[in-house]
Amino acid sequence: MQITRTNPLTMRFAAAWFLGLAVAAQAQVEAPANAASANPVLKGAQVTEAALVDALAIAPPEGAASGATRGFRPASKPGGAPVKAGPGRASLLITFATNSTELAADTQGQIDTLARALQSDTLAGFSFRVEGHADARGEAAGNQRLSQLRAEAVMAYLTGKHGILPERLTAVGKGSSEPLNAARVDAPENRRVTIVTVRN
Q1: Where are the beta strands (DSSP E) in 13-163?
Q2: Does the pTM exceed 0.85?
Q3: CA 194, CA 172: separation in Å to the nearest integer?
Q4: pLDDT tens-digit profile of 137-164?
Q5: Is 15 helix (H, G, I), strand (E, B) or coil?
Q6: In the chain, how many H helices and how many E strands?
Q7: How many Cα atoms occupy the beta-carbon half-sphere of 121 within 13 Å?
Q8: Would the CA dihedral through 185, 176, 90, 153 be positive or negative?
Q9: Closest CA to 127 of 161, 160, 88
Q10: 44 vs 95: CA distance, rounded Å
């Protein structure tokens, strides 16, 4: 019986190659779950003032605690405990009728809750980007325009009904460029409004 010796360098190369494949496969399995958990879509009873404050609160700029940033209030809860920095964005499942920019009654309730969160002491020192999203049905140009108008409708409601200062908000239409559910074109979570915290 003849024994063939394998080059140790070849063995190391093969082991590294298989390890690379395993890491890549694991990353593909974990990526969708991590993406969803990093920016969950809040809907129904999940849309609370506390949940929105937690999602939109971000770490204060350096020097803010010492008063170096004009108009900034350090993030803290009513008892004085610091607020843990969140992702700085919150997606709300605010839905519209087809080709409509009118806010439904249940949608208005969610935006009322959002307004209370934006007026809280924790978020008082920040500005926000209101991003409208559309699903990929229809033409790209039409989806872009529709998403912009929907973002503007939410912004108009916040400023008109709740007195949020217009300079704290910017409406941005994202069209269908950032679907949360790429596997299902007409998924309701693709027609959403995302609020993103912006440092002043």
Answers
A1: 41-42, 89-92, 127-132
A2: no
A3: 10
A4: 989 999 999 999 999 999 999 999 999 9
A5: helix
A6: 4, 5
A7: 11
A8: negative
A9: 88
A10: 12
Which amino acid is it at 20? Answer: G
Retrieve residue 22's tokens.
Answer: 């395993």
- pLDDT tens column, 119-136: 999 998 899 999 999 989
Reported as a single tens digit per residue, the pLDDT across 53-104 is 999 998 765 554 433 333 444 444 445 444 455 678 888 888 777 778 889 8
How far apart are alpha carbons 191 and 17 in whole angstroms? Answer: 41
Indicate left, alpha or beta for 169 from its phi (over 0: left) and psi (-120 to 50: alpha): beta
The CA distance from 155 to 152, in Å, is 5
Q: Average pLDDT of 174-194?
A: 89
Strands (E), 83-126: 89-92
Most confident range (mean pLDDT) of 9-23, 70-84, 103-117 is: 103-117
- Asked if 200 and 127 touch (Cβ cutoff 8 Å), the reply is yes
Is residue 18 classed as helix, strand or coil in its secondary structure?
Answer: helix
CA distance 20 to 14: 10
CA–CA distance, 50 with 56 (Å, rounded to integer) = 10
In the block, tokens 């009728």 appear at 97
